[in-house]
Amino acid sequence: MTPQDMEARIVRYGDLQPCKTAFIDAHTPGSDQKENFTIIGGGVSESPDQHVHISIPHGFNIGAAGQPPHCRNSLHNHRTAEVFFILKGRWRFFWGEHGDLGEVVMEEGDIFNIPTNIFRGFENIGTDYGMIMAILGGDDAGGGVIWAPHVIKDAKAHGLVLGDNGKLYDSKKGQSLPDGVKPMPLLTKDELDKVDKPTPMDVIGGYVRRYLDMEALGRSGKPVKVIGENGLIRDKPGFEVDLITRESASDKKHKHDRPSVLMPMHGHWRVDYEGGSVTLAPGDTMSVPENLMHSAVPSMTGEASLYHVVATDDAAGATWKG
Length: 322
Description:
38% strand, single chain, mainly beta, seven-stranded mixed sheet, 322 residues, Jelly Rolls
């Protein structure tokens, strides 16, 4: 692996290319300032304007959402896993068809493995531009997004219509549904009744982990298994997530039989690999090729942590409740 080849597998935070028309709520007041990013994989965007940084299949997708204060992402559902960790800012996550079944406030480094089959949304409640990083199960990210009925109605009132082909049409640009394409149907009452309605205790206790708690565990000298069959969050969403800290990092090279991803949270990290070396900063995303010997260690003093993601053979939508 040459340094040039490896650079093509690194997406720097400052080079991220946003899409402001990715989803149906792009014109809806309160959600119209969102920026969506597809870093690895095809993502779930409904817009052809979405830029894909790395299209190599990994068994999962990596994306991000950037939002100014008080901007929110509308209530939606996924058929596969959706995991977020907070890179910058302070965020409120809420769930239920109307967002009134529960909520949790999350700080930088916190991680949320959102269960499948629930409506969820999120809002930047900080005082500055915030960024959350996302891991989506499967190479096709589950075939798209399922919107709460009121989101589709609100979007239509502001000029955006979602076709049953999963594509957006903007009447403000003179677009209309093509022949043979119908509006995306609203979920029926029977379909809505089948959507899960977990309590705050179920969600927060089972699917949220705090960064400070995980960082403390990492001082033991071993990487923290955050999501996995034997993780702090005992789930099998089609990938595993570890938190590696300064104390648990090792300069001993290792490899995986499938691509893996390194996503620094704090500090600068030196990644040595067969063919060269590179330094990553918070917000950067690095795709490590399968079977490439590599190691990652902090390159400067101070707090250092990164999230490590690798696919498993589990179904991308499986939720295992132990």
